[in-house]
Amino acid sequence: MAERSLDIGITCYPLIGGSGILATALGSELAQRGHRVHFFSSALPVRLDLTQPGISFHKVVVNEYSLFTYPDYTLPLAVRMAEVAQAERLDLFHVHYAVPHATAAYLAVQMLASSRAHRPKIITTLHGTDTTLLGQDAGYRPAIEHALAHSDAITTVSQSLRGETLATFAIERPVEVIENFFVPSPRTRTREEVRAELGVAPNEFLAVHISNVRPLKRIDLLLRSFAAARSARPLRLLVVAGSPFAPYESLLDELRLRERVIVKEGVREVEDYLLAADAGLYSSEHESFGLSILETLFYGKPVVAFQVGGIPEVVVDGECGLLHPFGDIEAMARSLSLLAGSPARAQALGANGRRRAETYFTAEQIVPRYEALYRRTIR
Ligand code: GMT
Questions:
Q1: Mind listing the pLDDT tens digit for each residue in 206-227?
Q2: How far apart are CA 266 and CA 241, in angstroms?
Q3: pLDDT digit string (tens) for 112-136?
Q4: Same domain, yes or no, for 159 and 102?
Q5: 351 and 259 share a domain?
């Protein structure tokens, strides 16, 4: 007997960032599989397509009352989630981030319980910061632990984050690992067209870095690694920055990189740049998974990165990229030089990476695992 389709609430951050991108892609895949998906956020998530059947968006409006020093988001979010859960009889809330989304979900469920209304289950996916940053803060940890204790299921995006989560919080229920996935979309421009737009010559070796350039992305180490690389081929670096690159401008001058580094800010569609690149260069001091790194693998590009957090679960060192101890910029530079000087090696690593991505990190692999978790949880 075919299983019934589900009514699912997804709560995520709308901005450019891996968790929102993952949540949006998941909602889209779930809707394609016949489920009805309701998104909750303060603004339309960047990649959400509202023309897709089965998708709706519930904007959370935050009023700025003069009596509050800081506007509150958690309460209006909880109220919106409760309203929609009751009206649409949602089976579950799948919240991406405990802070404040799991807390809001618990509050919404409590509001519904007090009116004897239908009660959705809560599934919380931790993407990193809840554990690695806020979980270390005594002002947040008990609240996160409370939200996790009242979640009906908890997932993390890597084994590494699962380990850190269990070491950080006292959690009694199982924590399941469901890795991130990515669905490349068809390209309308060729690699040559994108390189021409960027002003990158055919013989130049183009490394790409995609991130929100937050301090933990260590853009200083990125630029220093790139500056230290040597090759007979001209080397270029493209930084696709999800937030302003201004704090690093002076370092470009200090390292005399201005002519060789291209910065693109506020880009929503990163895939053309992956097509144009020859390798990915990532320098985070921590990364629970590295969705941009996975995107890079899908485009058949080898990845040079520090061996931190969940990155080794995505990139197998020596098979689809070259990983180095955190901070070893000389080793990062040597790997970049090696790839630039040996296109055959770069292509072989890239092809392995694409194969790995297409074997383990597709929607076909990952989405059914979320569906199975949903069904187990609501049963
Ligand atoms: O990396 C960021 O700064 C954004 C952050 C987010 O919350 O969107 O990314 C986290 O979640 C992504 C999706 O699961 C992971 O791929 C990133 O590794 C993770 N970032 C960190 O752990 C720093």
A1: 999 999 999 999 999 999 999 9
A2: 7
A3: 987 777 799 999 999 999 999 999 9
A4: yes
A5: yes
Which residue among 10, 21, 127 is best mutated to probe the pocket of ligand 1, counting the most ligand atoms within 8 A of its Cβ? Answer: 127
The domain tally of the chain equals: 2
Q: What residues line ligand 1, using a CB cutoff of 6 Å?
A: 17-20, 22, 127-129, 157, 180, 212, 214, 216, 286-291
Same domain, 99 and 225: no
Ligand 1 atom with the shortest distance to the CA of 294: 16
Q: Residue 228 is encoded by which pair of tokens? A: 């230290």
Rounded Cα distance between 246 and 244, Å, is 5
Please state the pTM of the whole predicted model. Answer: 0.96
Burial of 196 (0-12, 13-18, 19+ CB in 10 A): middle
Strand partners, 93: 9, 122
CATH number for the domain harbouring residue 213: 3.40.50.2000
Query: What's the domain range around 253?
Result: 191-360
Residues 367 and 243 in one domain: no
Distance 180 CA to ligand 1 centre (A): 10
Residue 1 CA to ligand 1 center (angstroms) comes to: 38
